[in-house]
């Protein structure tokens, strides 16, 4: 019998190793959550502890809560407060940085980007709806040069979780990400092109880093405001934040309960 082609054995070993990892129960979950207001109900629900001896570089405002829940090591990481202004460090830059640093430090089996989002009534979104996102893309990275335009949109699939979606009976939809709370006409055109039902300020950035480092990621987004409605976005967001965060807390707990004891292919 002829020897296998060069590299075939190592490729087979790598595939078997990957399959073994996929088929073991999920043990470590990393939540990336932009605002601490969104995170604290989950911190309390899972009885997590704030990390005072930070795994992150000295001086960064990032906050980590950790603990164990139903056999899972749970980590919730927030970008924290801007050192100068004291507001939550929302947006794609902070989300990218904390996602990268958290993956490096914590080696999660699964990332969950949980948070609030604006929804589009024309696509069936209502205040308080929680969506399990199927796909993410950017709507404010316009680079009208061939191939660069595709890179700018940065469309990526979320990790497929058909059993989770069926079990929770929650809505599914596409997510579009940009660094502004409001929506310019150009952003709106891009969001329509992305076929998005919801919009946020972090998701596609988290997806980009997770894809680079090959960590599966899912997105849970609760609707605080109807972007194509008749109320000002900022006003509606602040008005509904507390109640919608409670809905997000309930759905997220159900997701974690479902994940406990399962491996990735079972999701």
Automatic annotation (TrEMBL):
It holds the Pfam family PNP_UDP_1. It comes from the Eukaryota. One of its GO terms (molecular function) is methylthioadenosine nucleosidase activity. InterPro entries: MTAN, Nucleoside_phosphorylase_d, Nucleoside_phosphorylase_sf. One of its GO terms (biological process) is nucleoside metabolic process. Residues 28-254 form the Nucleoside phosphorylase domain. This is Nucleoside phosphorylase domain-containing protein. It comes from Anisodus acutangulus.
